[in-house]
Design a protein that fits this description.
Helix content: over 70%
Strand content: under 5%
Transmembrane segments: 12-31, 43-70, 82-101, 127-145
Radius of gyration: 18 Å
Structural class: mainly alpha
Shape: globular
Keywords: Membrane, Transmembrane, Transmembrane helix
Number of domains: 1
């Protein structure tokens, strides 16, 4: 018997990854101009596509199943949803770093260093810290918009 089944809010599911991607890409675009040609708008447009791929993929295939499974085990609150998003945002770092490591060799070939050494070096990058916070933001927005747009169930 489920304690509280989390319900899927389709508008929130479609809107939240796009909104989270836009927020974090805008932050990156503003702080990473450094004389780049095209300015922040070009950086925003270029980074928005991969950000949406990661955000929608993580939301659909990682966050939503985890949220539905966790809601069967414990009573879900906004705080628990945000903590789940934070943890899953940290988990997403591993495959992304693994993809970067695979092409880190000369001429994007096989890697020349150990994965653990590469991972520790990438973990020291402050931009990696954005992933857990992006996961937490996505979860929090999904929880809030889901509560806003979900029609309460009528008692049977």
């Amino acid at each position: 018997m489920a304690l509280q089944d989390a319900r899927i809010s389709w508008p929130a599911l479609l809107l939240v990854p796009l909104l989270t991607s836009a927020i974090f890409v805008a932050i990156l675009a503003v702080f990473h101009v450094d004389g780049a040609r095209g300015g922040p708008l070009l950086i925003f447009l270029v980074l928005m596509a991969p950000a949406c791929v990661v955000a929608y993929g993580a939301t659909l295939f990682l966050f939503l199943p985890s949220l539905l499974l966790l809601s069967r085990l414990v009573r879900m609150t906004g705080l628990r949803a945000c903590l789940l998003g934070f943890v899953l945002g940290a988990v997403v770092i591993v495959p992304l770093v693994a993809m970067a490591w695979k092409s880190s060799g000369p001429d994007s070939g096989p890697p020349t260093e150990n994965f653990l050494v590469f991972f520790v070096r990438w973990a020291a990058d402050p931009m990696i810290a954005l992933f857990p916070f992006a996961g937490m933001t996505t979860a929090g927005l999904y929880w809030w918009l889901g509560k806003l747009w979900t029609v309460p169930r009528q008692p049977a």
